[in-house]
Design goal:
By secondary structure, this protein is of the alpha/beta class. The protein folds into three domains: about 5-135 and about 255-315, 3-Layer(bba) Sandwich (FAD/NAD(P)-binding domain), CATH 3.50.50; about 150-250, 3-Layer(bba) Sandwich (FAD/NAD(P)-binding domain); about 330-430, FAD/NAD-linked reductase, C-terminal dimerisation domain (Enolase-like, domain 1, 2-Layer Sandwich). It has helices spanning about 10-25, 40-45, 45-65, 75-100, 150-155, 170-180, 200-210, 300-315, 355-360, 390-400, 405-410, 420-425, and strands at about 5-10, 30, 105, 110-115, 115-120, 120-130, 135, 160-165, 185-190, 215-220, 225-230, 235, 240-245, 245-250, 255, 270, 275, 290, 330, 335-340, 345-350, 365-370, 380-385. Helix 1 packs parallel to helix 4 (about 75-100) and helix 1 (about 10-25) runs parallel beside helix 8 (about 300-315). The chain starts with a strand and ends in a 13-residue tail after the last helix.
C-alpha cells in the first residue's frame, strides 16, 4: 500500500483528519479537487463572517445615537482583501498538513475500490479511506441567473434590492448583512416563521430586529417562478404577488456530495442522501470512514473538526466514539443566536436589557437562558445577544462537564462584559441575580 490513509476532500473535516492522522504518525494522502479549506474556508464560513463583520461595523455606526455615518463601500477593494485573507489561511493549512507529513494531492479523486483512489490518471492505495467530500447548495435549474453562496459572497457591488429565497440561517445571516450594507431585502420562507427548527423564544428578537431594519419577511410563501431580464429579476410568489429585484440569493439548504467520484463502487449503506456511519464514524465497510456534511446532520464545520479527531483516534488504534450531547449551534444574526445541549426541567432567564455592557453598545433586545434539571445540573442553554457565539463555549463546557448552575453563578465574570449575563442568568436559578428582579 502507498499510504496508511487516503482522505478524499480537503475541507475542515478532511484536512482536520489528515493533520490529526499525521500527528499520530500515519502516512496520509489528502486529495482535494479545488482549494484546501473546502467550501467553509473559501466560499462559506470565513468569507460570510468577514462580510457580516463589515456589515455589523457599518450598521453599528449608523444606529449609534449622535453619530452621522454614511461610509462608502468599495466592494472590489474589499473582495481583493478578502481573497488575500483567505489565501493566507489556505496556505497556512497546507503548510500545517505538510509539516505533519501529509502528502497533498491537487486533483479530482475517484474511488476505484475500498483501497484504491485514482487521481490525475494515477492510482494510489491505502489501508484506510476517509470520505470528506462535503456538501453543495440545493439548486433550482429553472431559476436562471440567481446567486448562491459563492456568487453572492463574490459580488462586486451591493445590490439595491435583494430577494432571498429561504429564511434559514444562511438567508437570515446574509439578509441581515446586506440590509446593513444598504440593500432593500425581502426574505421569502415557506414555513410559518424564519429559522425553522430553532426555538421560537430565541428567534423572536431576531425577527423583530430584521423588521425594524426594514427587511420584508414573507412567511408561508413560496417562490413559484423567477425570470431574469437584462436589468432585473421578476419573481412570482405563491400569494399572487410579483417582485422585481436587482439580485436573487437562493438559500434553501445544502445536499451532501455523494455523486461523481465513484462512491457507488463501494456499495455503502446510506441514510437517505447521506453516508451511514456508526459511533466511530465508520461506514458499513471496515476501514472506510465518512465525516463532515456527507455523513449527516448537522452540517457544521465544528462537527466535522470533532469527527476528524474521532476518525484519527480510531485509525490510530484508539477507541473513540462521537457524542453530540453538548454540540453548540450559532446563527450570526443580529443579535446572534447561540444554543447548546437540551432543555431541562427548569430554565433561568436574564434579559439583555439588564446588562450594562449591552446598553453601552446600544443593544437591549435579547436574553440569556440556562436549562437545568431538578438537581441544578446544566443541561443546555440559549443566548440571544451580541457576540453570543463567543460565550456559548462556557455553557457547552458546563453541559459537557456536568457542572451545576451554581458553578457558573460562583464563577467571577469580568465587568463590564456581555458575558456577565451568563453569570446573572445562573444566579436567577436561586432568584438572586444582581441586576434584575427575578420572578422566582
Amino acid at each position: 500500500m502507498d499510504y496508511d490513509v487516503i482522505v478524499l476532500g480537503g475541507g475542515p473535516g478532511g484536512y482536520g483528519a489528515a493533520i490529526r492522522l499525521g500527528q499520530h504518525g500515519k502516512k496520509v494522502a489528502l486529495v482535494e479537487k479545488e482549494k484546501i479549506g473546502g467550501e467553509c474556508l473559501n466560499y462559506g464560513c470565513i468569507p460570510s463572517k468577514a462580510l457580516i463583520e463589515m456589515a455589523n461595523s457599518i450598521g453599528y455606526l449608523k444606529e449609534l445615537p449622535g453619530v452621522n455615518a454614511n461610509p462608502e463601500i468599495d466592494m472590489e477593494k474589499w473582495q481583493k482583501w478578502k481573497w488575500e485573507m483567505i489565501g493566507k489561511l489556505t496556505s497556512g493549512v497546507e503548510t500545517l498538513c505538510k509539516a505533519q507529513g501529509v502528502t497533498v494531492i491537487n486533483g479530482e479523486g475517484k474511488i476505484i475500490d475500498r483501497n484504491t483512489v485514482e487521481v490525475q490518471g494515477k492510482q494510489i492505495t491505502a489501508l484506510n479511506l476517509v470520505i470528506a467530500t462535503g456538501s453543495s447548495p440545493v439548486r433550482f435549474p429553472s431559476f436562471e441567473g440567481v446567486a448562491y453562496n459563492r456568487e453572492i459572497l463574490d459580488t462586486p457591488r451591493i445590490p439595491k434590492t435583494l430577494l432571498i429565497v429561504g429564511g434559514g440561517y444562511i438567508g437570515v445571516e446574509l439578509g441581515t448583512a446586506f440590509s446593513k450594507l444598504g440593500s432593500k431585502v425581502t426574505i421569502v420562507e415557506m414555513m410559518p416563521g424564519i429559522l425553522p427548527g430553532v426555538e421560537k423564544e430565541l428567534v423572536n428578537p431576531v425577527d423583530r430586529k430584521l423588521r425594524s431594519m426594514g427587511v420584508t419577511i414573507l412567511t408561508e410563501t413560496k417562490v413559484e417562478k423567477i425570470v431574469k431580464s437584462a436589468s432585473a429579476f421578476e419573481a412570482d410568489l405563491s400569494d399572487g404577488k410579483k417582485l422585481q429585484v436587482e439580485n436573487v440569493l437562493v438559500t434553501v439548504g445544502r445536499r451532501p456530495n455523494t455523486e461523481g467520484f465513484g462512491l457507488e463502487n463501494l456499495h455503502l449503506d446510506m441514510n437517505g442522501r447521506f453516508i451511514k456511519i456508526d459511533s466511530r464514524c465508520e461506514t458499513s465497510i471496515k476501514g472506510v470512514y465518512a465525516l463532515g456534511d456527507v455523513s449527516g446532520e448537522p452540517m457544521l464545520a465544528h462537527r466535522a473538526y470533532y469527527q476528524a479527531g474521532v476518525v484519527a483516534q480510531n485509525i490510530a488504534g484508539h477507541d473513540a466514539e462521537i457524542d453530540y450531547h453538548s454540540m453548540p449551534y450559532v446563527i450570526y444574526s443580529d443579535p446572534e443566536i447561540s444554543y447548546t445541549g437540551k432543555k431541562g426541567t427548569r430554565e433561568t432567564v436574564f434579559p439583555l436589557a439588564a446588562n450594562g455592557r449591552a446598553l453601552g453598545m446600544n443593544s437591549s433586545v435579547g436574553t440569556y437562558r440556562i436549562f437545568i434539571d431538578d438537581d441544578g445540573i446544566v443541561t443546555g442553554a440559549g443566548i440571544v445577544a451580541p457576540h453570543s457565539s463567543e460565550m456559548i463555549s462556557e455553557l457547552t463546557l458546563s453541559v459537557e462537564a456536568g457542572l451545576s448552575v451554581n458553578d457558573i453563578a460562583l464563577t467571577i465574570h469580568p465587568h463590564p462584559t456581555i458575558s456577565e449575563g451568563v453569570m446573572e442568568s445562573a444566579e436567577g436559578a436561586f432568584g438572586k441575580p444582581l441586576h434584575f428582579k427575578s420572578g422566582r
